[in-house]
Write the structure tokens for this entry.
Amino acid sequence: MSVQDLIDAGGLVPPAQPYDWARAEQELGIAVPEDFRRLLDAGGAGQWFGYVRLFAPGHPLPSQDLLESPGVFRDLLVLWEDDPETRPDDLPEDSRLLAWANTGNGETLFWRVDPGASPDELSVYVEDADGESWERFDLSATGLLEGILEGEVRPESFSDTFLRVDDVYRPYPSA
């Protein structure tokens, strides 16, 4: 499966206003992975499988704004000072996490950003709703979504009740 297959499966329609990826990358301090940009450029931010809510740069809801993602990691760093056991075991001290999606159930999906790493080499981490458990996937964001759609990938913390692969994609209502 390819990003185009995912776009086709979701019936994506490009958003009315294109995203300013140059501004987003400047604010985030990283190059956003090309596959993620292609997916958002094809259909905008929305909800996948009735469950996974993708973030977009400049989204009107701060909880869905990709540009707010660095603040999520700063909050994690504060929590980890008090409770270092909740930090992912395999996250190097010089790496950071950048949130790109969350779920209505409270899980957050992150890219692991290592110094000097190519944007196409970013692993995905899924934090459970309690912030106590982490799962790593050596996949891109779209690779994770493709794996869920094909039934080959399922984060352990994801709800079997709410995750529905028959409800592939719904765009967020226009603001």
